């Protein structure tokens, strides 16, 4: 009996009658471990990994906050470097959580607060006037930012920014022109404050803010007190937001309830459609191919820190995690449990192997970008016009993600979930329409 | 209410008549909300990435210059929105502002003009010497916005056959708090609602001859309906071309419609409209001198030709949802009435697209947009008194009706006509005047049952 035949009627019945109807499939394979997988257990384990990955994101963000507090206590170059390292470390679990954004409305609706991109950096702090030419009469523009001005016109309206705190960043600024994504908070606001502008274009080098920007006794670039307030408030906000999401994925949390409400088929479709939407439209398309096409660091996701290669690597890894039911926590411990892979293998071992091969090929292509970065060819350098070899390396990542997504579509068809209509997330691509040909 | 940051709204006292906000998330499925976001049905796989990249541009949130994200900066300095999607809700129609200043209701912008001959020239309008061709209600950090918008409504009731009455509301927009000095004493205001994005590439491929064949500028057939094509300046040909897009058909093709909106509404310079300052005028030097987002990688513009090409592809390839309930007898009776009372004289049901080698998914398709793409005098009630190329202040292009049944799911509520004044299909029909007056009167005289059929038909689109 094929999995599709087994899964479909049972799961539809489950969706109508009870979310707990088991659809047990025993993985009888050559693999070393045998994992009992059912639609219910796969979805349960998917939520367990979410709990771990958001808990890790929160832990890493708290470590970042500690490093930032140390920097603010003693603004030395060493402490700034340590804070930057902590930021990069904090991105490791967070990027692996992104696969949950697509498919889970509760994550998608929240994401704009923590990971909004692009950042309106000129709204936050000073930017380099020489970057765009040096006409002296426009110098005033480069100080029209919140850190430099207790009162200023934002979005054409006068705003009291006398106190820089969470309320100002999360509420006042957020509501100015009705944009859903907040362009002044989240990881990238903190990144900008730690690194400063990356003025190197598609040449090597990241942003290079001095530690003295946070030193009230020896203040560089002015308004160090307000810059400290901004960094502190943005970090506190990030902790608040991550705490909320970590709680959502705990047992009985709102995110788990949302997932359960979709029924077994809906939950499986949430996983696969999330994987496909992130892999194809978002990661291959918006974040990689677009930057490559424009030969511009535009969609370089972690642009101030030049960390885009790792950001992409961990996005892709999150997709792989979702298929394999695996996650390596930041303390080194491993989560492994019922997976889509097991369900697929039970139905069509060759297809499961093919999917694994493609996921591994994608990681290899991502690793090639990481290796290039280690040699000074960061993502912004790779996508530069004329860097034929670098362009090809980035294109290989796009191609791997595209091919992977087409195989994922086969997996969805095999599992009987290709036509499941998903509720709740507006970031989802219609799988039939966008995932494959 | 967020009084400090949102256009001040002075609504008429009868606030109960303001349509209750529809809780879209609860009422409609994701598929229904995203009905206007799907790619053309036969889009070849190798063109899907172009679609995805174009979507990224359509949804991109622009930031002010200078920024490290050089291909995403250049916002404003004066602007109406930070992204295309911000006005075109889920790719559907925008919504006019409400009393609460809700953030998702940024769907109206005000085009400006003053008396003069500018509409006969390349610009198509006579812009205000200070405020330009459009009123931008936002500005980048450090600059004042051009104005806030005051919106008031006046109400009237229209009786229908059978005893029912329908309340119509007429919006009056008034710019307040001018940021750059007094407005011109004879300033013309033309409020424009962001239209739905579906099927635009199909409309673009309707053969010009088929559109012109329906023209009857002197009403030679004496049916009371003239129908004129707008003729608008096209920079590629350096001469006038058939106008197809915009509420008065003021743009010849979708590329120019996109690039002019990007420039005027968001303030992004591009190959067609290279001004980095968007709609800044010479009388707004601080705006003109503000940092711009031009970069060599973008062809020394804020948005490159490549970026515009994928945006164009995306906006061409948004599928029109299939009709629903077509075999329902009410719907079929309504379709019959649609023809009988004269709606289809301008809302031409069927067209056939031509061929474009680079757009196989759009070529040679029989489509049902319900428009003739021609200008019609719609009467004093709808007039904006601001001419645009050949279109007079009373003329509007027949808007397509496809997708009409999806607006509440997609946008959250129904806001029809060029300025979103009509809250229901009934209201929209009753605003028809001028050349459409006869058809409107026939509608008013229908029995309640017949009107129900007609509405069922429109809901099926």
Largest interface: A-B, 75 and 66 residues
List the uncertain runs of chain A.
1-34, 131-139, 424-437
Oligomer: heterodimer
**Number of separate strands of chain B:** 13
* Residue-averaged pLDDT of chain B: 90
Order of strands side by side in the largest beta sheet of chain B? 3-2-7
Distance between the termini of chain B: 36 Å
Total number of helices of chain A: 16
Compressed to H and E, one letter per element, the order of chain A equals HEEHHHHEEHHHHHHEEHHHHH
Poorly predicted tracts of residues of chain B: 1-25
Summing up helix and strand content along with how strands pair, one would put the structural category of chain B as alpha+beta
- What global shape of chain B is seen? globular
Provide the β-strand percentage band of chain B: 5-15%
Strand arrangement in the largest pleated sheet of chain A: 1-2
Series of H and E elements of chain B: HHHEHEEEEEEHHEEHHHHEEEEHHHH
Gyration radius of chain B (Cα, Å) is 21 Å
In brief, what are we looking at here?
The complex is a heterodimer of chains A (437) and B (461). With 437 residues, chain A is mainly alpha-helical.
How are the SSEs placed, and which strands pair?
The complex is a heterodimer of chains A (437) and B (461).
Chain A: H1 3-16, E1 24-26, E2 36-38, H2 39-73, H3 77-101, H4 105-115, H5 121-124, E3 151-154, E4 157-160, H6 166-172, H7 187-195, H8 224-248, H9 254-260, H10 263-294, H11 308-324, E5 326-328, E6 334-336, H12 340-347, H13 349-374, H14 379-382, H15 388-414, H16 431-435
Antiparallel strand pairs in A: 1-2, 3-4, 5-6
Helix pairs in contact in A: 1-10, 2-3, 2-8, 2-10, 3-7, 3-10, 3-11, 4-8, 7-8, 10-11, 10-15, 11-13, 12-13, 13-15
Chain B: H1 24-27, H2 30-33, H3 48-59, E1 78-79, H4 84-87, E2 108-113, E3 134-135, E4 138-139, E5 148-159, E6 165-176, E7 188-193, H5 200-204, H6 208-212, E8 231-234, E9 239-242, H7 254-266, H8 285-288, H9 305-316, H10 329-340, E10 351-352, E11 366-367, E12 375-377, E13 395-397, H11 407-411, H12 425-430, H13 437-445, H14 448-459
Antiparallel strand pairs in B: 1-4, 2-3, 2-7, 5-6, 8-9, 10-11, 12-13
Helix pairs in contact in B: 3-9, 7-9, 10-14
